[in-house]
# Entry
Amino acid sequence: MEEHWTVGRVAELAGVSVRTLHHYDDIGLVRPSGRTAAGYRAYSTDDVERLREVLAYRRLGFGLREIAELVGDPGADAVAHLGRLRGLLLARRERVDAMVAAIDRELEARAKGLTVTPEEQLGLLGARLYDAIGGAYPATRRTDPRIAARIWDALGDARTVVNVGAGTGSYEPADREVTAVEPSAVMRGQRPAYAAACVSADAEQLPFADGSFDAAMAVSTVHHWRDPLAGLREMRRVARRVVVLTFDTDEPGWQDRFWLTRDYLPEFADVLHGFPSLAGMAGAIGARTEPVPVPWDCADGLFEAYWRRPEAYLREPVRRAMSVWTRVGPDAERRAVRHLGDDLASGRWAERNGGLAGLDSADLGLRLLIA
Ligand SMILES: C[S@@+](CC[C@H](N)C(=O)[O-])C[C@H]1O[C@@H](n2cnc3c(N)ncnc32)[C@H](O)[C@@H]1O
# Structure
């Protein structure tokens, strides 16, 4: 005969009140399905297992409605739930470690009398940069057709595509079946109604089985990932083909390529500090690399977009849609904008960069990784 546990005994073992168990019973979340010899309702082994899952998800902060969906998933058995719970706990441990590291960094910076940038402060809270700055994104960030053509070409004959770090959906090909992945609620909330369905997740832990997609793409996002190489490997795991638009920091002269970082914003080098090399990223997924020139009239307001239209960098909405400015902090931003404004007014910028006027596109280090 199958063993059964009374409500009181289960409450004692699980460390919850009998009232809680009655509530779960009332809402249909965990129903004691058996009877004791005396005829009282009691929990079977399966009921106890379900309760264990409910309580574990609860401890991780899930709401009862979400938990009902999770434990009601007919495709998930106890092993699947344990795997999922393990992943959630590891992610939580990583977040705690990251928070401790951020506190250490900030303490060190403050001890040296250094300014703590808004990004560093948000990092400490574990907040997402794009939840803080993403509201300004759609003003200037959109699909540039020439860059899009390169990405779509690289996707080859892929029918199903996962777009990682999808943001508001730029560069998502309309003629394929796209699943978007985007961790920032602010960015997800700005996706147009017609855009592909979007899952909330990080590149470093994609919630898909191996080989789920024909291709995985990531555009202008890898440098935001906590662990770019882990994210790239995840893309490789879930898709046969990987297409990534990123930039090259290997070449020693890269700082000199773009007048904005060379003459006005040397702090950009700090932003890239710790970012993996292009060769390292390509090596992680066995990719080849191709240069992607930035057109002089690039429609996507990315950091390098206005290399032939320098006045654009004086405009606040243009800068607010580029994360670099938040990362370098307000002091560096004010100084760079003031110097650029002065040089444009005095003709010094034109003197130095006059040669750019004759170019239709420029290689400013954007690269496609194709694996
Ligand atoms: C510059 S936006 C690019 C958005 C879009 N791919 C585009 O081309 O417009 C960078 C995006 O990466 C997302 N992101 C940041 N960390 C991420 C991570 N660990 N995994 C996936 N996406 C992430 C941000 O929330 C943001 O939406």
Notes: The two ends are 57 Å apart (CA to CA).
